[in-house]
Amino acid sequence: MPSKVPFNLGLTRFAFHWQRLYLVGALIWAIDFTTKVWALESVSPVKPTPIIGSFLQLRLVFNPGAAFSVGTNVTFIFTILSGAAVAGIAYYAIKIDNRWWSVVLGLALGGILGNLTDRIFRQPSPFNGHVIDWIELPRWPVFNIADMAIVCAAVLSVVLITKEIPPFAPVGDQKK
Questions:
Q1: Transmembrane stretches, by residue range (predicted)?
Q2: In total, how many domains does the chain have?
Q3: pLDDT at position 44, please?
Q4: Which residues of the chain fall short of a pLDDT of 70?
């Protein structure tokens, strides 16, 4: 069911959804970037800092791969795939007709951009940079805010798909 616009500013309901998507994405990216700058200055790569005993610790890791350090030798491929995912989200953003799907894609966008920023601009070289991870749980890879946003987007998308909530309006209803 399409969401209702509470007031009219001359914008379609689709404009509100893509604006929400980009706002969520920008917020996630900013939080991720800020916390990575903080982690680089404050978190040790050698000795973990316990927050909740050994359950939650902070430890600085430079990850050249993806989750679980998969693909450590193909960082450039992850950079290209991340760029393609961002382009895909941007393409579909103006077609979103559900507030929850706009949040899902905003979370994904912010998370992907957070890690993509590291891959493009961080050492060892442009487009081959290592992602800054700094949150550690037992028996789990060290991760960051961007990773959390991507996982939340995946979980929420499964919930929406299970509830059969479509991201797009029916074809004849897309110009309203």
A1: 21-39, 74-94, 100-121, 142-161
A2: 1
A3: 95
A4: 1-14, 68, 171-176
